[in-house]
Amino acid sequence: MERKAAAAAAPKSAEKPAKSAGTSEGGEPPAEMPPPPVRGSRSRTARGDPAATQTPRKDDGGKGGGKGGGKDPSPGEGSADRSAEKAWGQQGSRSAARRNPDASAAAGAIETEADPSLAPSLSSGVDAQAAKAMARYALERMSRGIRDVAEQIRVERRTLTLGGEGEPVDERPELMPGGTYRLVCDRCANSIADCFRHCDGCENDFCLECCAEVRRARAEAGAPEVSTACPHCAAGAKDDAALAKARTNGMSLKVRSFSVTTKRSLDAARAMPDPLSDLAALVDEYGDLGRKVKPEEDAKPCARCAAASNGSGRSKRSSTASRSAASNGGNAGLYNATVRASSQPDDSCPVWAPRRSDVDPRRTGADVAAAALAHFQRHWRRGDPVVVRGVEGELPGLWTPAGVSAAMTDRSVDVLVCETGERKSVGVEEFFLGFKQPEREMLKVKDWPSEEDFKQKLPTHYADFVRMLPFQPYTNPVDGPLNLSCKLPKEWVPPDLGPKSYVAYGREEQKGAGDSVTRLHRDMSDAVNVLLHVEPRGAEGDEPVEGARWDIFRRQDFEKLETWLRAKMGEGALGNVAPEGTTQDGGKKPTGHPIHDVRVFLTEADLAALARDTGVKPWTFDQRANDAVFLPAGCAHQVRNLRGCFKVALDFVSPESVGECLAMARGLRAHNVEDKLQGRAMMLHGARHADVALNGGRVRTYGKASAAAIAAIEREEAVAAAARAKTVEVKVEKEDAKKGDAKKEGALKKEGA
């Protein structure tokens, strides 16, 4: 079993828990899983995720750690996305927290006025109506994936037969304990989010995909092993006795419930009639929501953008039209704003590019904000990139090279020489001098400061960056209602999704080898990338300066692109390919995949040949200063820096993209690429949070025992919260007393003088 512990950087190995949690005391488990309630009963107001606990140590009975590591909704249509955004827009200011203090307190809102280094919570700007509408929209998009998970588990539970013959029995999985760890399949490196099989002999864990693959292979080969025999022990048996034992001993079925975070919450899960009652109830209550999702409608090009493009010249309309339309009280200009692209797929629309001032509910009316979010979702469901212009922070000079380097304590930085791949350390001041000297060798630095240090070393920059991001329900990393990544509890060791910085030199002339580029690759998560500083050259006008050129491919073109790349790499016919093994971070082994290994950058000549041979074209456009590029998960893309650039990116996972995340994770299994994103776990936890939001903040219970266990936990948490509040109150009183004493002392000194 590989278990990954929480860490600031890449997750490292942790120790395993002592054992599975087993069943609740005082009775045999039922033979079959009882049906969940039609609408589960509710406890009192939902509690937040409890504090993290440590994974059990060896001296607690645990064993040693792992191995180391299609039409747009129009105003008035009652769609969930529009109603959610409209309600959010009406509550878009922080004053909403004062108008609805109970909702703000329940959500744990973070007040940012007092401390500019704190990233803002979105809770204070989202009322109950908006939260419910967004929760329902999220469940609509995730419903199919949740049903698929439940069906996969149902099949696995019924693979055992008594004595190897007869009808399958419904196997009851053992509950895993709470604690901070991450489960990884020992066969394919996929993250384990729910059910898995465990071998007591070799201590290996196997995800359900691997279990199904092994059974299919055995059936095809006519092997005598039982259906749940450990493939590792069977393959590694040294003698006939060991082989016979491996063939007859089945692996146990275990589950890490998404209702369990700590040891205390395990008590409530044990009180459920079945370890998977929580998942079964989600399927029972929301399983049919996915029928409202029509993929064929999502795949249609945006009619409004197509009409705007045809009426104003293909991809030529400036986003200034959006500004003028909004200032005149209308929102038609929203759909006229597009990037000026030099290439785009044949059956697509131009990249939509509104200004931030036209999509921000704090700056525009609720109706316009609602239309903007609904239109964004229209593109996002299709898998189209989106650009938002005019995205900038609130503090002047914060994102210039001087502003960033002054805030950093580091006096040197590790850089990559683009032409040779050499890594070296240079002084920060020396590195930034190269921004103004394009004739110098191209250097770039990624993740400076590193992801884990960004919040700690640049807290003001971090908060300013989060505040500036458009479409906060998706991009807010604290509690964005449509950002599934922030639903994963810290006990599950969530991935660090940023912010991460990209600082690089650039030049306008494309020379091939030695250019400052981010090579062609594909991400499992969604992302927003903001160009915060472009180094000017000479006298330039007031228009934003182009800093980076993007090539973004559609998801559906990935297979054609992969096939073409394999052929051309075999012929040595591409203009910019890095040597094998030089582009993997952290010592990862190459996979032999032309995109996953991040070795290729397609030059203009390569892109022309690709279009000629296959008909595949990317969206190609220039990112200007203060442009935020929204990139859907699964879109292969590459970037070339035209000037010295400072970009900051944040990853997130949206309900619309979670299916693509799961599909990519399944595809990467064949290349033994570890799934650090945990998209499946994010989906299940996101569904749990949405379930709570749709039921007025009340968590689901499953009968009297479950309700009693949850009530006991809530009472304990209420006592703890009261104690914390009292501590704060005492601290405030002491501070007030000190201020009063200081004021009196100052007054006495003044009288004496």
Descriptive account of the structure:
Helices cover 37% and strands 13% of the residues. It has 753 residues and is α+β, with helices and mostly antiparallel strands. Strands 10-19-16-21-14-13-11-12 form an eight-stranded antiparallel beta sheet. A hairpin with a 6-residue loop joins strand 7 (195-198) and strand 8 (205-207). Helix 1 crosses helix 4 (128-157). The radius of gyration is 28 Å and the shape is globular. It starts with a strand and ends with a helix. 47% of the residues are buried. The model is unreliable at 1-114 and 312-330 (pLDDT under 50).
In short:
With 753 residues, the chain is α+β, with helices and mostly antiparallel strands. It contains 24 helices and 22 strands.
Give the topology, please.
Elements: E1 2-5, E2 12-13, E3 41-45, H1 80-90, H2 95-99, H3 101-107, H4 128-157, E4 174-175, E5 182-184, E6 191-192, E7 195-198, E8 205-207, H5 208-221, H6 231-236, H7 240-248, E9 252-255, H8 263-270, H9 277-286, H10 295-298, H11 303-312, H12 320-327, H13 356-359, H14 366-382, E10 386-388, H15 401-407, E11 412-417, E12 423-427, H16 428-433, E13 443-446, H17 451-457, H18 459-468, H19 472-475, E14 500-504, E15 517-521, E16 526-534, E17 546-552, H20 558-571, H21 604-614, E18 619-624, E19 628-631, E20 637-641, E21 645-652, H22 658-669, H23 679-694, E22 698-701, H24 703-752
Parallel strand pairs: 4-9
Antiparallel strand pairs: 1-2, 1-5, 3-22, 5-6, 7-8, 7-9, 10-19, 11-12, 11-13, 13-14, 14-21, 15-20, 16-19, 16-21, 17-18, 17-20
